Amino acid sequence: MNDLLNAALALAGAGVPVLPLRRGKVPFGNCRTCEGGVCGGRPNMRSAGACQCPAVCHAWAAATTDPRVLTSLAWAAAWRQAAAVAYHPAGAGLTVVDLDNPEAIAWAHATLPATRTVPTTRGEHWIYQGTMRSANAVRPGVDIKSRMAYARWLSHGAGTLAPLPAVVRALAVKEAPAARPMPRTISAPAPAGAGECRHRTPAFLERGIAMAEQRIAEATSGVHNAVYRTFLAVLSTHGRCGCLTDAHVERLFTAAQAKGESPRHCTDAWANARSALGV
Q: Sign of torsion, CA 241 243 245 251?
């Protein structure tokens, strides 16, 4: 076994769901069987029981504490290529406040209760006991990773875990929509007399999102540009009728991150696409 797998098994034994990350701190993408959500789960984001694929191809949803899965033949190639170990914070009952720069760390010291801290390449992870929804860019240099997210495992850190404070929960509720262009709905009135918007037909909207996910997944070069153009296409078709929700946008962001895009690049591409279309 390699060192990363040994570390993963130790974490799993302590009840922390883990998965390997490839170069660039991104998860392994969908296998051919699971591409486009045909397995019953969304690309790199499956629901419990929706997909029985043994491969490590659903990002945070592939995280496990089962040593038989971690050491299985289906995961062996991933561990050989892995560059890091990640974990699903909510699966361990945790929330990670990811502080990306010294300014963000200074804000945390002035605002948040002390808790366990882990040094990162550019900042710190502040870890709290409790779960909440994940949100990126809730304020400059601050992301929240808990449900439906993964965080890189770096060390056990220092300090005692504190309960998840209300001030952190409030960040995702109050500040995330303003900082991250992902409102619950992107609303604009339908043309007068047009009747029910065809985009509200579940099959039409689902097909559009699935096609966008596939377009991103199949990009072999110029990923930044492919992601932007795909976001632009989705917004031009579905962005003015109030049909897109956080769940739809999260699917597009997840597909982009599976190709190596960072959350910040996704946010910027989405904002630029909205700006270009005036939505």
A: negative
Helical packing angle, 246-258 and 223-238, nearest 10°: 160
Q: Please give, one letter per residue, the 3-state secondary structure of 52-116.
A: CCCCCCCHHHHCECCHHHHCCHHHHHHHHHCCEEEECCHHHCEEEEEECCHHHHHHHHHHCCCCE
Confidence of residue 199 (pLDDT cuts 50, 70, 90): low
Does the pLDDT at position 185 exceed 80?
Answer: no
Q: How far is the C-alpha of 56 from the C-alpha of 79, rounded, in Å?
A: 10
DSSP one-letter string for 127-151: EEES--B-EEEEETTEEEEBBB--E
Rounded Cα gap, residues 21 and 2, in angstroms:
14
Is pTM beyond 0.70? Reply is: no
The span from the CA of 131 to the CA of 146, in Å, is 6
- For the stretch 59-87, pLDDT in tens is 888 999 999 999 999 999 999 999 999 99
Find tokens 């592939």 and name the residue. Answer: 62
Under a CB-based contact definition with an 8 Å cutoff, are residues 217 and 255 in contact? yes
Contact 70, 12 (CB under 8 A): yes
Copy the structure tokens of residue 261: 């895009």
Q: What contacts 272, CB < 8 A, 6 or more positions away?
A: 228
- Which residues are CB-contacts of 146 (< 8 A; sequence separation ≥ 6)? 89, 90, 94, 95, 96, 131, 132, 133, 134
**pLDDT greater than 50 at residue 269:** yes
Q: Is the pLDDT of residue 8 over 70?
A: yes
Rounded-to-integer distance, Cα 223 and Cα 83, Å: 21
